[in-house]
């Protein structure tokens, strides 16, 4: 057995003769036979105090276990609430995220379809462009061949004209040599004057051209850069439209230039014809010819001079260009020389910074040379482009324009009609796929809800298992309490027996004193006294035997107590294990909180991604709207082109009527029929285009409404997450403040405990001295007055730390404590608890044992805190290490008790939101019902669209059939019908009739059935074909 610092352990050595007891504190042995009454009384008092301390320890252990049990239950409830809230938050967040993802997938699918449509359009445009390019090249080749023929004819005419002129000139030379010489002189003078004027003008023009050429590459570069940037900024469809417009303008310019060239050629031909007429007149009228010859000669001279001037101008232009390039090179060389001179000057001035300046200048020179090369390349490219343009302009013809315009109009109309129908079909298929995806997402949500319900059931089962385990531990504790009560009852019985034995010894001592007095007076009664002594010796032997038996019983009782102490130690170990589990659960809660914070960060990142995707989708919508506007513009331009074509056709028809009213009557009738067909087709196309526009605009409105709903959902989700994050930030700040305040309190408490330790050591020394003095000064009168029969009632009165008193104290404390006051825990409450325990104990203790009781209560009060976190050291004997152990126990208690309050605050915040979660679930259900309603509507719309598609397909097929029937040859059809009537080979002729007459599938079935029935009846015309 062990006792606190002031109590002395007891050793009982059982022998055959007598029982002896020893104390370690005094080092003296106590024999029950030889010991005094005072020694026995002190021995019994020490044992009573020792037992009271054990009772106090057990009571504190039981109360701490109850507290831990209650805290564990509260934590389990809080964990469950937290897990439920987390599951709800996960469900809501997952549902919102899935809805957003589904809509994002829809947008991505729509974007993919649009990209596919763009690619198809680009491919169609490229194919069309290549086809048109091939036609254009073929027409250019034909024009070149025609031009070569014309050039050959002109050369032949010029040669003939020159020969005739030479013959006439030879005849008239002799007559008019003198006049010609004079005219030559005058002509040469005039030419010299004109040449001087022309040279002056050319010099001026060269200067102006040089300036303009310097400015032209800059302007071209600017325009090219601006055009390239502008084209890159535009979408694909606009780029294609701009390129087509540029090509059309270039073609128009080329046509105009060709017309001008043809007019010039016609003028030359007319001039030559006039000259031939004049020559024929000159043969008839020589006199008139001589007069006119001079004029013609002057004209020819002027014409030749003009040609010479044009050739000279061309040569001068080339020379000027060459000179300008040379000048540019010279200027650049001069600039390089200037740069070199500047470099030399700079090198002379600044010798320190040679390397840096040289490197910079070298780089500048390299860049300058690169720019020069680029300019030269650009000039060469510009020249080549100008030459190519001039060649293309010369090759174009008016016939190509009309053909190209007609082909373009027809191709554009057909392609747009087909592309619009494909767009409608693709959009509807995309909507169907999107609705299917929404249904799949709903199924996934249902499966996830089922999984969460299963997890919740498992949590319930775990909770029931833990509750059953706690009940088992409670039953074990109740058994230990019953064993302790039985031990206390045995100890009370033992005390009664000891008290009875002590009283008996006192009466025996009084009898012995009376016998000594009577020996002096009655010497005659010695024999009797001897007999009485023998009897007394016999009685003493019997009493000694009884005492030995009692000692044996005491040994057994002590062994039982040791066993009970071991059981209590085991119980303490169980309590420690529970505490460790409690700490582990706290750590798990902290980890869950951290994981939740990490999840929130991840959710924030996902929200940012979703917002970016949402903005991208907005941009895509804007682009689609711009494309729709472009399509509308294209449709308007097509309408205008169609109207212009119709007007041109009408004008052509009126002209043909005026020129050839009789010959072209049949042609005019055919053209009118074709015009009516074209007008009907154009009207049908316009109606279809308008219907497509309306459907497309309605779809765009629906998409915009969906985006608005998505924005509202995103805003709600952001608000909820922001509120949760703000609350958590506030809680973390409060926790930091509380930790700082606790650290300050701990430091102050350590300082105060160091002072208390020194005072306690001094008081212990004084109390030991007082104990020794009290042992010597006690008398029989004090012992008789203090000793009283010890019963259970008196024992309970004397025990200041009994179960009833302590339960009352803790009940009062627990009534005052609330959930909001848990955070207000301080170290002062622990210090006050020690002082209250001291006051209770001092009021109930005696005056002789004040110092001992104070020391014991200080130690027990300080140990109260250490018992919460550590097992009880029953075998400890040192008093110096108790205070340090107490401080460590207080620190651990503060650290462990503070974290549950933080968790409680977090859980309370989550519990306050639990009511709002139910409303959110209801809202989600309402949204699900809305989505189902939208699905039903979409299915009905799909059916309508399918029916419309069928109707459109039938109309298209009927139109194709009508067109093909209109192109049929009646003679061919007549021959087939005659063969079908004359012969019985209907199986081979039916497919021909179906293809020629273009039967529908129903009509084909009817025809085959009729043929089969006719074969059965062997009558040819009993069954109708249709």
TrEMBL record:
<feature type="region of interest" description="Disordered">
    <location>
        <begin position="1"/>
        <end position="30"/>
    </location>
</feature>
<feature type="compositionally biased region" description="Basic and acidic residues">
    <location>
        <begin position="528"/>
        <end position="545"/>
    </location>
</feature>
<feature type="coiled-coil region">
    <location>
        <begin position="241"/>
        <end position="392"/>
    </location>
</feature>
<feature type="compositionally biased region" description="Low complexity">
    <location>
        <begin position="751"/>
        <end position="788"/>
    </location>
</feature>
<dbReference type="InterPro" id="IPR000237">
    <property type="entry name" value="GRIP_dom"/>
</dbReference>
<feature type="region of interest" description="Disordered">
    <location>
        <begin position="646"/>
        <end position="687"/>
    </location>
</feature>
<dbReference type="InterPro" id="IPR051952">
    <property type="entry name" value="Golgi-autophagy_related"/>
</dbReference>
<feature type="compositionally biased region" description="Polar residues">
    <location>
        <begin position="789"/>
        <end position="800"/>
    </location>
</feature>
<feature type="region of interest" description="Disordered">
    <location>
        <begin position="749"/>
        <end position="800"/>
    </location>
</feature>
<feature type="compositionally biased region" description="Acidic residues">
    <location>
        <begin position="508"/>
        <end position="522"/>
    </location>
</feature>
<feature type="coiled-coil region">
    <location>
        <begin position="418"/>
        <end position="490"/>
    </location>
</feature>
<feature type="compositionally biased region" description="Low complexity">
    <location>
        <begin position="841"/>
        <end position="862"/>
    </location>
</feature>
<keyword id="KW-0472">Membrane</keyword>
<feature type="coiled-coil region">
    <location>
        <begin position="51"/>
        <end position="216"/>
    </location>
</feature>
<feature type="compositionally biased region" description="Low complexity">
    <location>
        <begin position="547"/>
        <end position="564"/>
    </location>
</feature>
<feature type="region of interest" description="Disordered">
    <location>
        <begin position="841"/>
        <end position="863"/>
    </location>
</feature>
<dbReference type="GO" id="GO:0005794">
    <property type="term" value="C:Golgi apparatus"/>
</dbReference>
<keyword id="KW-0175">Coiled coil</keyword>
<protein>
    <recommendedName>
        <fullName>GRIP domain-containing protein</fullName>
    </recommendedName>
</protein>
<feature type="region of interest" description="Disordered">
    <location>
        <begin position="506"/>
        <end position="564"/>
    </location>
</feature>
<feature type="coiled-coil region">
    <location>
        <begin position="921"/>
        <end position="962"/>
    </location>
</feature>
<feature type="domain" description="GRIP">
    <location>
        <begin position="963"/>
        <end position="1010"/>
    </location>
</feature>
<keyword id="KW-0963">Cytoplasm</keyword>
<dbReference type="Pfam" id="PF01465">
    <property type="entry name" value="GRIP"/>
</dbReference>
């Amino acid at each position: 057995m062990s006792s606190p610092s002031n109590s002395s352990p007891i050793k009982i050595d059982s022998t055959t003769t007598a029982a002896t007891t020893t104390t370690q504190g005094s080092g003296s042995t106590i024999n029950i036979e030889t010991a005094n009454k005072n020694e026995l009384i002190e021995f019994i008092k020490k044992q009573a105090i020792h037992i009271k301390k054990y009772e106090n320890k057990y009571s504190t252990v039981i109360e701490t276990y109850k507290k831990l049990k209650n805290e564990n239950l509260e934590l389990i409830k809080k964990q469950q609430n937290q897990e439920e809230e987390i599951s709800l938050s996960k469900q809501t967040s997952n549902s919102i995220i899935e809805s957003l993802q589904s809509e994002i997938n829809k947008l991505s699918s729509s974007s993919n379809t649009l990209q596919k449509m763009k690619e198809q359009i680009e491919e169609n445009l490229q194919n069309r462009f290549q086809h048109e390019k091939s036609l254009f090249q073929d027409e250019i080749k034909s024009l070149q061949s025609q031009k070569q023929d014309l050039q050959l004819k002109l050369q032949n005419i010029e040669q003939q004209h020159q020969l005739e002129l030479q013959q006439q000139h030879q005849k008239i030379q002799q007559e008019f040599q003198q006049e010609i010489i004079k005219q030559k002189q005058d002509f040469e003078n005039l030419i010299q004057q004109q040449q001087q004027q022309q040279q002056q003008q050319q010099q001026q023009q060269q200067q102006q051209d040089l300036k303009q050429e310097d400015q032209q590459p800059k302007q071209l570069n600017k325009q090219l850069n601006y055009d390239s940037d502008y084209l890159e900024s535009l979408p694909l469809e606009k780029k294609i439209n701009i390129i087509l417009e540029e090509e059309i303008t270039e073609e128009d310019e080329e046509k105009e230039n060709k017309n001008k060239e043809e007019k010039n050629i016609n003028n030359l031909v007319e001039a030559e014809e006039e000259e031939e007429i004049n020559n024929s007149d000159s043969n008839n009228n020589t006199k008139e010819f001589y007069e006119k010859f001079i004029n013609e000669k002057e004209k020819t001279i002027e014409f030749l001079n003009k040609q010479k001037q044009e050739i000279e101008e061309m040569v001068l232009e080339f020379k000027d260009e060459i000179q300008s390039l040379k000048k540019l090179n010279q200027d650049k060389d001069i600039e390089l020389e200037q740069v070199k001179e500047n470099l030399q000057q700079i090198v002379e001035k600044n010798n320190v910074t040679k390397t840096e300046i040289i490197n910079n200048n070298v780089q500048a020179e390299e860049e300058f040379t690169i720019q020069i090369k680029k300019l030269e390349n650009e000039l060469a490219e510009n020249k080549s482009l100008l030459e190519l343009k001039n060649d293309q302009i010369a090759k174009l013809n008016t016939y190509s324009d009309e053909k190209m315009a007609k082909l373009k109009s027809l191709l554009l109309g057909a392609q747009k009609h087909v592309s619009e129908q494909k767009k409608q079909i693709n959009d509807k298929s995309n909507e169907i796929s999107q609705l299917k995806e929404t249904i799949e997402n709903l199924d996934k949500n249902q499966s996830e809800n089922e999984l969460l319900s299963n997890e919740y059931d498992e949590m319930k089962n775990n909770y029931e298992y833990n509750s059953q385990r706690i009940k088992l531990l409670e039953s074990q504790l109740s058994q230990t309490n019953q064993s302790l009560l039985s031990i206390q009852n045995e100890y009370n019985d033992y005390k009664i027996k000891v008290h009875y034995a002590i009283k008996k010894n006192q009466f025996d001592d009084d009898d012995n004193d009376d016998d000594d007095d009577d020996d002096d007076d009655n010497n005659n009664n010695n024999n009797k006294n001897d007999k009485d002594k023998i009897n007394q010796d016999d009685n003493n032997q019997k009493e000694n035997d009884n005492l030995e038996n009692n000692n044996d019983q005491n040994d057994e009782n002590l062994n039982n107590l040791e066993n009970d102490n071991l059981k209590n130690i085991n119980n303490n170990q169980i309590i420690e294990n529970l505490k460790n589990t409690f700490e582990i659960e706290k750590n798990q809660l902290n980890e869950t909180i951290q994981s939740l914070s990490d999840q929130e960060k991840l959710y924030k990142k996902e929200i940012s991604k979703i917002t970016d995707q949402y903005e991208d989708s907005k941009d895509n919508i804007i682009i689609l709207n711009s494309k729709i506007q472009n399509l509308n513009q294209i449709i308007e331009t097509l309408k205008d082109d169609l109207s212009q074509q119709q007007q041109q056709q009408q004008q052509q028809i009126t002209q043909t009527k005026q020129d050839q009213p009789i010959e072209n009557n049949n042609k005019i009738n055919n053209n009118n029929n074709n015009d009516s067909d074209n007008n009907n087709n154009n009207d049908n196309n316009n109606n279809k285009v308008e219907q497509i526009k309306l459907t497309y605009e309605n779809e765009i409105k629906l998409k915009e409404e969906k985006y608005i709903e998505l924005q509202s959902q995103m805003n709600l989700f952001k608000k909820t997450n922001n509120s949760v994050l703000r609350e958590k930030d506030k809680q973390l700040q409060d926790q930091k403040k509380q930790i700082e305040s606790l650290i300050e309190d701990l430091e102050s408490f350590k300082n105060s405990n160091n002072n208390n330790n020194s005072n306690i050591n001094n008081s212990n020394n004084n109390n030991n001295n007082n104990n020794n003095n009290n042992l010597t000064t006690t008398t029989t009168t004090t012992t008789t007055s203090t000793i009283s029969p010890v019963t259970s009632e008196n024992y309970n009165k004397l025990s200041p730390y009994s179960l009833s008193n302590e339960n009352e104290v803790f009940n009062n404390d627990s009534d005052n404590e609330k959930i909001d006051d848990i955070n207000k825990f301080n170290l002062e409450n622990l210090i006050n608890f020690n002082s209250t325990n001291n006051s209770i104990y001092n009021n109930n203790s005696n005056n002789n044992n004040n110092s001992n009781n104070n020391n014991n209560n200080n130690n027990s009060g300080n140990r109260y805190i250490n018992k919460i976190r550590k097992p009880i050291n029953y075998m400890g004997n040192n008093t110096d290490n108790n205070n340090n152990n107490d401080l460590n126990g207080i620190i651990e208690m503060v650290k462990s008790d503070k974290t549950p309050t933080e968790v409680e605050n977090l859980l309370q915040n989550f519990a306050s939101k639990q009511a709002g979660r139910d409303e959110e679930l209801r809202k989600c259900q309402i949204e699900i019902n809305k989505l189902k309603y939208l699905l039903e509507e979409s299915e009905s719309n799909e059916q309508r669209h399918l029916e419309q598609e069928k109707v459109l397909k039938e109309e298209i097929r009927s139109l194709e059939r009508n067109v093909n029937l209109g192109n049929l040859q009646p003679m061919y059809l007549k021959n087939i019908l005659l063969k079908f009537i004359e012969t019985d080979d209907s199986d081979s002729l039916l497919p021909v009739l179906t293809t020629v007459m273009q039967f529908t599938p129903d009509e084909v079935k009817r025809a085959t059935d009729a043929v089969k029935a006719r074969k059965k009846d062997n009558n040819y015309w009993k069954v109708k074909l249709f």
